[in-house]
Amino acid sequence: MQKIVTIERFILENQPRTAKGEFTNLLYDIALAAKVIASKTNRAGLANILGRAGSTNIQGEVQQKLDVFADDVIFRLCDHTGRLCLMASEEHEEVIHIPPQFEKGSYVLVYDPLDGSANIDVNVSIGTIFGIYRCLDHDKRGRLEDALQPGRDLVAAGYVLYGSSTMLVYSTGQGVHGFTLDPEIGEFLLSHEDIRLPEPPGYYSVNHAYYTQWTPGVQKFVRWLQGVETMPAKPFQLSERYIGSLVADFHRNLLGGGVFAYPAEKRKPQGKIRLLYEAAPLAFLAEQAGGYASNGSSSILDVVPTALHQRVPLYIGNRKLVEQLEAFIAAE
Ligand code: P6P
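^ thats the input. predicted complex w/ 6-O-phosphono-alpha-D-fructofuranose below
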């Protein structure tokens, strides 16, 4: 019988020697939140949770009920555990302090509870993205500075993809590992150990509708991906796949090899993707899988956030593709 490895067993067997239970248990908490969110996501059309919650988030985006639900689940599963000193969520304008009655912990959790939520009503895969940092202040009160750390300082990052199956993919700096939820037993089971971006890459993902908004170097890069530009030689053919849900597009490129791009635009010079809880955690995973993530000129992991919800141009996936993008932009 094939060895059955639950995420709990894998975390325990692979936790850094120095890790205390706090970090390991925080990963359990996130896996539990993923199960709870998955249970609602898979029946969104039935549970009268479709459509607008009426409220809008700080991005001015109309909040879907599932957005609000996912954000609430993560907060309520993590606020009292004594493992965190602070949280930051895409759905909250300010940092989220741990309620005073609860013990503080050593870690910061940043997260996008449900990215791609515009896709909920059309039954397209959506996802949760998270990153974990160490608290900087030793009295663990948790301040904004604890959340504004560069991705290079992440101790863990991952995502949950609510798709044809529910997958949790994470890294603690020892490779990238994927777990698939078995809904019959309610366990995440190891299904993709040590994920590496394959060579040659198979895909590129970008929204061509914005082509006229891009700078010449980015336009040239996309024409190169298409084979229209023929220098430098590109001895492989790519397919274009773009689902408009970052976690789904990233996951496909992670498993099949490729590059995802949400470029800077003339009207949006910082692009659309958020640095803290979207680009940086995915950049951490990409590097752990042998790839690279850039803002167009340097590693996403080296960008020090100055605001919780700042955006960043994002080019992420196979290193050679992303470095070629940087070269085209540098030659603009
Ligand atoms: P566009 C979803 O709203 C999201 O933030 C990402 O999940 C996705 O990659 C991107 O926006 C899609 O944006 O402008 O191509 O529709």
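The first helix runs from residue 7 to 14.
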